[in-house]
Specification:
Blueprint lengths: L1 H20 L4 H12 L9 H23 L4 H34 L3 H11 L4 H13 L8 H27 L6 H33 L3 H22 L8 H14 L1 H29 L2 H4 L3 H22 L7 H9 L6 H6 L2 H8 L5 H32 L15 H4 L1
Helix pairs in contact: 1-2, 1-11, 2-11, 3-6, 3-9, 3-10, 3-11, 4-5, 4-7, 4-13, 5-7, 5-17, 6-7, 6-17, 7-8, 7-16, 8-10, 9-10, 9-11, 10-11, 13-14, 13-17, 14-17, 16-17
Amino acid sequence: MIFNLAELLLAALIADWLFRKCKMPGLVGMLLTGVLFGPNLLGMISPALFDVGVELRPMALVVILLRAGLKLDRQTLNRVGGRALALACVPAFLEGAVVALLAPRLLGLSPMAAVVLGAVLCAVSPAVVVPMMLNCIDQKRGSRTGAPTMVLAAASLENTLVIVIISALTAMFAGAPENPIRALAVIPVSVLIGTAIGCLTGLALCRIFERFNPRATRRAIALIGISLVLMHGEQLVKAWFPFVSLPAVMAIGFIMLERYEPYAHEMALKLSKIWIFAEILLFTMIGAQLELNAAIPILMTALLLMGAGLVARCLGAQLCLWRSSLPMGERLFVCATCLPKGTVQAAVGAMPLTALAAAGMDTGPGEVILTMAVLSIAVTAPLGAWAISYASEHFLEKQEPDSDYLSSSEMPAGS
């Protein structure tokens, strides 16, 4: 398996370099590498490596959320917080609703299966959006209006909410004897409890780091380890305690930046290096999951359904920015950030299929949902990455280092 992993990493690195040289997002090359090495074409990825990729996927999500939290400056967040909250809810709701309405006619799904599909497809990819927003923040693009920070906060919160909703909907879809109203009503409570636990954990870690002063690499590894423990703890207590770990992970990074700022930037740098490996493994595995035989017959229908959902999502984003101070170019930039799918779909796309199989029910709808999830990644991740890259370069104002305007809220983000 080690030699197989080495082959995959080297091929992905070469593909990433070639696509960047061609002025295209490197993750496109990683996705295509996964498709090429996957079971549908060359079949060069061993089953053991597939299992490892599935196990390491939560680590990639943890690294993304920690990096997001370590860049969420409080002053800038206060300035854009209301819009960020709206962007976390309205576009996803509109996209999910449109997909749920059209899927029964286009794909022959039941209404409940269509609702689950809408929830699976409606989240943007933190694996694409978060690193690109961090790059914008580091390069001082859009710093005057705070647009990248607003998108960063919205994407992170949206993913948290969507994953919790998908878990509740999947349980109902597979026939779990749970009151649907109670399952959905507990979501905001779960998010608040998770955020509180993350804040307390972050404060405790600050005290520990100040007392023992470990090296930056050890601090970053400790953050990842604690976050993974929180994710595992969620699975242990979810039956009787409403707690979700994703907002907790992001809150840890936020507290670190507030209370431990000089070291927060060091940890963010270390996490960005760890992300290089996590990104390669995540996107090559996503590409390898694409079942070409199942995807080709529904490709045109899938594109139509995804396109309708993305149009609704972009309209929702523009609705959230109504009467805002953002210029038109930055509003188009926000629309570009609505396009890519990836991490959430990779993490939860198979959840309905697994739940139906465990309940002994027909797995056909679950297979359709999984195929749509992988197709949405393969189509929108490269398209969205290219659109965000183009929009950030052409529509975001770049704040020069020697500019008179350099607020305290922006200095940590560029450090």
